[in-house]
Each structure stands twice: as structure tokens, then as C-alpha cells.
Description:
Strand order of the largest sheet: 1-2-3-4-5-6-7-8-9-10
Oligomer: single chain
Mean pLDDT: 92
Strand content: 5-15%
Shape: globular
Distance between the termini: 34 Å
Number of strands: 10
Structural class: alpha/beta
Radius of gyration: 19 Å
Amino acid sequence: MITASPIARLSPPGADWRQLWRESVTDARELLQLLHLGHLADRLPAGDAGFALRVPRGFVARMRPGNPRDPLLLQVLPQLAELDEAEGFSRDAVGDMASRSAQGVLHKYQGRALLIASGSCAINCRYCFRRHFPYGDEMAAAGQWRKALEHVSQDPSISELILSGGDPLSLATAKLEELSHGLAAIPHVTRLRIHTRLPVVLPERVDGAFEDWLAALPLQKVMVLHANHANEFDAGVDAACARLRDAGATVLNQSVLLREINDDADTLEALSERLFAAGVLPYYLHQLDRVQGAAHFEVSDERALDLLESLRHRLPGYLVPKLVREVGGDASKRPL
């Protein structure tokens, strides 16, 4: 039986999500000390390898103290391996900049436009494919979303709007309400999809005001969460997922296949089962986007296909995620 860390949050239950965000751990040495791993501090890269550490304390509390290979810790702890140059890895791993259509708008796929809603995340995952993205220049929420929504309104082929980032739920609910007002004038947009990690890493974000906003949207609503391991779930995450469903959203999950974190059949099976227990359907299992600094997370295609075959034998079809890779310039995710 895996037991969670006894680490206590600085704030009492029911604290405002913005307060909990401010109290996140941003020092790798503090993170190691909290987990009784301070002796590993000399293995940390200088300057967090150019990508700041951030992790909510509630997520730290799900890590196992004393275990340097904890699968949640490995997702967020800076590593010296991030400094290694790896052939085939780049700063723009999926061709985001080539698909830029307007300020903060990426238009890669037929019928869908993606808005870079925010450059902020509640947690900085070390394998993030946008860890080098120029968020300062590309923010769809700027100016009450005006330029982004102008672009979408002028293209009647766009029926689905995707909010990504960063994390869209890093924005205040009032800022999301601005988007609602703009969408009301675009009749060809019928579906809103939000890609977010916050309900998993900071479930307090799905508060009453956010649930009310989501429920009032006169659109089909899809929430795509991001969890990579069953240990990321607890009662708070379960409650956040329930609130999303109560607001009328279809709730899916996408994971990234990560070496030494979830690259075995038992772990992936447990993740799918835990997702479904929380009312979430597995959607995608991504092969790693080959972003500079993340090569040490890569799993071979052969291994990935073997794992997928194992899942097919172990799980009902609706709990087997689609194994895909995103390739810049392709018209869709590429199935493996």
C-alpha cells in the first residue's frame, strides 16, 4: 500500500486557490528538504536548468518522502540531464510558431483553433513541450481577447475553440467571463475545449464561481485534464472532477509516456482505472514531444507499442487511451 506524504499545506482546507498558488514551492532545495531528500541538493542544475520550478504544496503532499524515484517528484524536479544536448530535440517541438494565425492563436487542424490563453501554470512539468514558448508575445487573453476572437469570427470553418497555454485555469474566472461575452457573438463556435492540469494539481481552482461560469456557457464543453500517474489523484481531485461533470462538461484525460514514471503496464493500467473511478475517460497517451531539455524522459516507440498491446489485453476498450505523437505540419495527431 502506497502512503502519501504527511507534509501539511501552509493553508487550511478551503483556502482560496490563489492563496494556495502563491504558497507553491518554487525552490528545488526546499522541495527536497520537505521530502527528506536534502542530501540530493548537489545534483540540482544551476538556475533550474533555465526552467523555473513550481509545484503546489498539495501536490507535494501526494509524493512519498524519502523516495528519490517518486513518480510525481520526477515530473517536477530539475535534473542535470536537462542540460544535455540531444539530437532531434528542439525549442519548438510541435511546430507551434508555424501555425500561428493571430496573436495567441494557433490554427493547426480543420475546424479547430487553439488559443494560448495564459503563459502561467500552477505546476511546471519538466517535459513541457512549451517550456521555451514566447508567451510574452503570444497571449490570446490580451485586450479582452479581441484579436484572437476577431480571427475566429472571420473563419466560419472553426466550430471548436480550444483553450491552452500555459494553463487557461490560471486566469481569474472574471477573465474567462470576458471570453464568454466575446464568444456570444460567434455563432459558428459551438464547442469549447479546455486543456488544463489545475483540477489535478490544484483542485481548489474548481470553485463555486468557476463551476457557475462553466455551467452557464451555452456551448458543448470538454475538459481535457492532464495526469500521468494514479498517485496524482486524491479526494480533492475526485471532487473537482465531479464539479466539472456537474457543470455539464465531458471530462477526458491525456497523459505523456515518461521514462521511469509511467512506462510500465501496471502503472498505465492503474492510471486508467483511477481515472475512471474519478469519472474521467482516458483520451490520449502521447509519445514525448521532443523539446530541448526533456530527452531523458523519452520512451522508444517499440516499448510504447508493447505497452499499448498490454493495455488492450488488460482493460476494456474505453479505458485504453489512443497512443499518438504530434508532428508539426500534420493535419491531426499521428496514431502509433
